[in-house]
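Handout, section 3.2

Students often ask what a structure token actually looks like in practice. Rather than define it abstractly, here is a full record for Protein-tyrosine sulfotransferase. The first block is the sequence as you would receive it.
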Amino acid sequence: MRWILDLLGAREGCRYDHMGQEFLTHGVWDQECSEHPANVRFHNHISGKALLELRAETAQTGGFRGVMTIRNPLEMVISSYCYHHRGAEPWNSISDGMASMHPKDGVPEMARRMLPVVYNMVQAYQVTKPEVYVSRFERMTGSSTGFNQTVQEMLDFLFGNEVSDNFKRRALDAAVHEDLNRGEFGYSFTDHTNDVNHTSDEQEMDEARSYLSLVDKDLMAHYKEMQKALGYSTE
């Protein structure tokens, strides 16, 4: 979205709860939305409540369009463990002690810590229609074809005929810098605040997955329900 917004010439945005990194290259992007409600907004942890509030806020001014990404909830747990185990975001309470935790302890603990984040994602997903396009992480990262198709659908959903086909082609050409399968270093590849790579390799992910069986049974049942709500297999 940063590539697309830059091409549009966006110069003002806001974010909720002062969370999230730079999403505009030029102009102001880090002001708080509750104080400066700009037309371009970023929510780092969207929820159903937040979407319903935005729907009500914009009901008399033409509404809004947005994009959110969902991911298999259990894969989010595994990815979050691997990411914070590498030492990323030491200021984040979700990472407390995680760098020194073996996956035997870290994966079940991360499942507990990630529950509110995943719950908010599910609640948001259930109230997205008709204003929000939902992209699936697995499709965007699985192949360059899936990435291109997702970005094209995003552009069509957000802008329809309000921008030219030429603009959409340029936007896609710019956005492909974020395609994991092209091996480029786009904005999303590195956490520039502490220089920790955002991507995990399959070996460390597989090792962490092997400890999902140690997650509390009641908690795992809740995760299975959330998988089903998002359309993921529970196998």
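Discussion prompt for tutorial groups: The two ends are 33 Å apart (CA to CA). How would you have guessed this from the sequence alone?
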